[in-house]
């Protein structure tokens, strides 16, 4: 049972430093200059009395929640926050109904802030439409994913989309300095060494909230904050990596190209960066499975088996242990002989199909199992390969128009070398020189 002392201590617990240091006006917001300058749409909307609908799209820690709070604070509107992670349609409708009552009884408007709005399904997003259309609330949705793919068109078309950018190192440094000195923050009660400050900036990876979390953790350990104190406070380094932004594409591109280039060390490095940054392990596993056929293919058919097994292992045992299975698959694929003959084969065949080079299925290959098929000549003259030596018999398989087309051109790399030799013999036997 909780004691009175415990209850008092709990109630006396201050808010996190990142919450205490949340800006109260647009002028206090650090970074996002493209959104906050004089005459910008956000400035004009804040200065007006009319309800609005906004989507704030940007990486974590760039100020999406902060801007929503500032809009509410500056315009003197109620601030109601709904998390798309835990809320359902019922919660959304309840928040909207409460806002309507408040507007009708007092005339006071409400800012309805939906964090991670991309997690809402279509029905949940549809529930927001009446409030947006009728301007019962000032709706602000925050998302780290491209809203053009994650938000329904009717809702997006009725809203202003503002894109937030990752904070620069100078911005993060300003955030840290302000928190160290401001009465709402640490009020000058610590000594922050320049090297430690630089370390905080580096570890933040463009995320202001993360920098304040690390600073607060360091301040709990010592008043004299050195690099060593910061390293003790931060249990693992944060990687400058945005799962939805350019870094996401840069790192996964380097990951694939390192495996393709047979550099296992580099591939494992990029794997570690993605894992440390919280990348979805299923996404990583899917990329390895694709690579196994796209870049290794028949040069080492076991790569696909290893990649699929790693993907299944990640689903079965989860993380952190699953990273070992992914690492094994990455090393196997990186060191395997390479061949892109498989992807070139389907690419060439698809090109022919798209340009209309299809032709008719030879009659002897057509389905002869239904009534009346024999009357049409389907299946007539088909030779069953297992009835012949070596399981191969000379007959036409491709449509007449495509008999000379060559799609699969194997390399002589790894296990594909004997495949190439066998395929050359079979192709010559079936089609001639």
TrEMBL record:
**Stored Pfam families:** AAA (PF00004), AAA_assoc_2 (PF16193), MgsA_C (PF12002)
For this UniProt record, the keywords arranged alphabetically read as follows: ATP-binding, Nucleotide-binding
Q: Which InterPro entries does the UniProt record give?
A: AAA+_ATPase, AAA_assoc_2, AAA_ATPase_RarA/MGS1/WRNIP1, ATPase_AAA_core, DNA_pol3_clamp-load_cplx_C, MgsA_C, P-loop_NTPase
- Gene3D superfamilies according to UniProt: 1.10.8.60, 1.20.272.10, DNA polymerase III clamp loader subunits, C-terminal domain, P-loop containing nucleotide triphosphate hydrolases
At the top level of its lineage, which domain of life is listed?
Bacteria
One GO term under biological process is:
DNA synthesis involved in DNA repair
One MF term in GO for this entry? enzyme activator activity
In this chain the AAA+ ATPase domain maps to: 50-166
Q: Which SMART domains match?
A: AAA
What protein family is recorded?
A: Belongs to the AAA ATPase family. RarA/MGS1/WRNIP1 subfamily.
The protein's name in its UniProt record = ATPase AAA
Q: Which organism is it from?
A: Acrocarpospora corrugata
